[in-house]
Design a protein that fits this description.
Blueprint (H helix, E strand, L loop, with lengths): L8 H5 L12 H9 L10 E6 L4 E5 L4 E4 L11 H6 L21 H11 L10
């Protein structure tokens, strides 16, 4: 179902990638990605090298770490994105987008859907 909630990284990998959009709540994704992982906070990734076995990540302090996957969640000026997609151009549309989780009572959700349809809404249970 479109509102499936995953419990771990293995479940994320199994999600078919034939959809144009996958909605992810940042806090839930972070919890799933951090499960069973040792994190060294305050390090800045400056590049990476993919191998058949995994990924070598290079940090600005000169250190390197080997990992199975690299999640490029380091913002608009991401060195990971620049290396992976060097031809990608970023455009500033002058728009700020803010996401939030809001628990909407069922009666109100039904009313909103009746008035506006469900195209811009995602009902998430659980």
């Amino acid at each position: 179902p479109p509102t499936k909630q995953v419990q771990n990284l293995q479940e994320i990998v199994k999600i078919p990638d034939d959809f144009s959009v996958i909605i992810s709540y940042r806090d839930r994704l972070r919890d799933v990605l951090l499960d069973g992982v040792s994190v060294q906070w305050g390090k800045k990734c400056i590049g990476y090298e993919e191998t058949k076995e995994g990924v070598w990540v290079t940090f600005d302090d000169g250190s390197q770490e080997f990992c199975d996957i690299l999640v490029g969640a380091d913002g608009i000026n991401s060195p990971v994105r620049k290396q992976r997609l060097p031809e990608l151009q970023i455009f500033d549309y002058g728009v700020t987008h803010v996401n939030t989780n809001v628990a909407v009572p069922k009666y109100l959700m039904d009313r909103i859907i009746k008035l506006h349809g469900n195209s811009l809404l995602q009902k998430s249970l659980g």
